[in-house]
Amino acid sequence: MYGSDQGVHIYTDTDMTLPLHTKISLATSMLLSAAIFGFFFAWVCSTMWGLDAIDPRVAIEAMQAMNASVRNAVFFPAFFLTPLALLVSAALLWRRSLRRSAGWFAAAALTYFALGLVLTMTVHVPLNEALALIEVPADLSEAQAIWAEYSPTWQLWNQTRTVTCGLSFLMAVLGLLALGEPAAR
What we know:
By secondary structure, the protein is mainly α. The chain has six helices and two strands; from the N terminus they run E-E-H-H-H-H-H-H. The protein has one domain. Helices cover 76% and strands 2% of the residues. The protein is elongated, with a radius of gyration of 21 Å.
């Protein structure tokens, strides 16, 4: 349906039908992008603030346990497969000449890859591995010094990856929204 007065375009499924494998790819891309953004966001708005508010000896021990537990089959797809899913979606859309949508999905993939996955591997993983080697000190002031060195740096870079993962998810949303736009003439 087209609205000539205001240039409003409302498309139905009969206007543009995507193959099932493309729909599955788009849904997977959205789900994984949202999951990893939500994972990082939870660290920003609750986990790290909670750890900062408790005895640093407990915070160190808790962070060591969480870092050890995160390497699992549930976390793997969202963390490692998000850029691949986004790129597959971009390629499938590109093949259907849906260039604007494909561009958004490709931009989402590159953003997450560089500022989510690579940032994590180069900043957070080394910080976490160094913390894992530390024996939790009995002395409160020693634990405070360790936590004060670890937490602010970890949080700064987590906030960075959270914002960029949110932007990556937003780009994927824009890619979906661009599906309803008519092709450039």
